[in-house]
Amino acid sequence: MKHYATQMEAARKGIVTEAIEKVAEKELMRVDELMPLVASGKVVICANKNHKVINPEGIGSMLKTKINVNLGISKDCKDYDVELEKVMEAVKMGAHAIMDLSSHGNTIPFRRKLTAECPAMIGTVPVYDSVIHYQRDLSTLTAKDFIDVVRLHAEDGVDFVTLHCGITRKTIDQIRKHKRKTNIVSRGGSLVFAWMCMTGEENPFYEYYDDILEICREYDVTISLGDACRPGCLADASDVCQIEELVRLGELTKRAWERDVQVMVEGPGHMPLDQIAANMKIQETLCGGAPFYVLGPLVTDIAPGYDHITGAIGGAIAASAGAAFLCYVTPAEHLALPNVNDVKQGIIASKIAAHAADIAKGVRGARAIDDRMAEARRNLDWEGQWSCAIDPETAKAIRADRMPEHEDTCSMCGKFCAVRSMNKALANEHIDIL
Length: 434
Ligand code: SF4
Description:
Bound molecules: iron/sulfur cluster
Radius of gyration: 23 Å
Strand order of the largest sheet: 3-4-5-6-7-8-9-10
Largest sheet: 8 strands, parallel, barrel
Helix content: 40-55%
CATH topology of the largest domain: TIM Barrel
Low-confidence stretches: none
Mean pLDDT: 95
Distance between the termini: 76 Å
Order of helices and strands: HHHEEEHEHEHHEHHHHEHEHEHEHHHHH
Number of helices: 19
């Protein structure tokens, strides 16, 4: 029997796994093209051995850009049925990954339900869950408590875990010295930072990184190296705290690869548009081409209620410059827990960003659907247009709400329809306008 622990180790040993075969097929690649990318860490296939229903996806800058949807209950919004409805809607709409960020109550049944029933990749942030799991104050938790929760999530079938391994006691001095406008805005990062401040100890996710690697290797859990110091406003973008942490994430990436553990690296955050491409390049250089997983980036700080748009602008630029994985941003960002409609808006915005980037970087087959849409538009073929649309329901509803007098046009121009006129002119037909 062919033995391997992780997809990375399999690829390094030349073993073609079922997951590698499926990902190659989805990406219109040959297996022998994909294998070296998985072996070198440029592509990850997040597929925990205990997540039996997974429909595997590859994440890497040369593959189709993938999108993640954050869900989970909070103390103020704690209905798991509503949360599950959002998961099903997200998967239906094409989310490739669901991160369960629940921060209230017993999180185990929901997490296990997700890995038992959801075919998308499942991610978690064990540091949030540590506080809930033990129902104790943060300062009373020990390093072992945190590591045990990582193991619990791995056993439960979680495919990737965000771990804030890159901040250390040195970061405490950095944050105090450099006086950022928004300090640390990463929820997990702020918990690790607060724990270090209260206990006087080193970051357990950094200090016991080798133990974590053992767990991740055993279950094939991909580590998503969290960026605790991701900028929370434009003024903090590309500052010393962010870049210093990124250097450490690069070192941790290489340590994981030595153990065949798959790694992604998380990134900004809020960032002026002109800094995004350079940030992607720095990450690629420092982290050896490990897939970059970005939250946004949000290109302005002043659009609460519309941050799915600020995030989509940044996401399109980031992905076209090398990011592989976009974390969706909803209109509720900075304001509230997203509801079902916010989730929908966030997914659509991220899908547009991802698709636009895939076209720009020439991902295999990405543009074919745009070409089909162009033909359907030229033919005034409305059914054909719905079949290519990212959100056909909304498109259909808008047309139905304002139907034209003549079926073969739309109510924008009516008989002045340029498409209709050109089709008729080129077919030598009479064009009646009045
Ligand atoms: S009526 Fe105008 S907007 Fe509508 S399909 Fe024709 S050209 Fe396009």
